[in-house]
What does this fold into?
Amino acid sequence: HSSQWPQVFEPLREVLRTFKLPVPLLADLLDAFAQDVRYTAAQRRYRDDAELLDYCTRSANPVGRLLLHLYGIHDALSLAQSDQICSALQLINFWQDVSTDVPRGRWYPSQQAMAAHGVQDADLQPGSHSDSATRLISAYAQSARALIQAGAPLARRIPGRAGWELRLVVQGGLRILDKIEALNFATWRKRPKLTAWDMPVMLWRALWMR
It folds into this structure.
């Protein structure tokens, strides 16, 4: 209610009216945020990758759809490719942050995937050199790469600055995946990150995106 936090909700109301933003997308973002808080507090794990992807549909996909809405893009293909990019970016962030999430009790590798690769909790601790954990993160990284590449053609169809920004967003995600691979997927020991030296690579790849 605007009476509780008027400095937030009064401007938000005007933005909603001006741009006719789809309120269900904003509700999805809040729902995902609340879920993340609940899962972390209860030390709850994701049962399988389908449940993890369901979280992504609310934590990440609404962001892309809101941006497309602002540019008047509503066709089914663009929405689907936006969802692919956004879900992939969320997943890439998970596999990038294993070394910081696990010590805080934030577990995103699903129980099903961990069991399939024979991964125990101890395998994702900082001192581990587990081959099973390597295979787990490798499989997740490959899946995320395929997902973001499937959505990447959207960046070429969006005109102007927005299209170029999306190209760089896609290339940023792919570059993080490159760095995860360079660590032999051991992101439970070290968090890969982008530096200024990565920008020329990303710009070059964005220029030649197909």
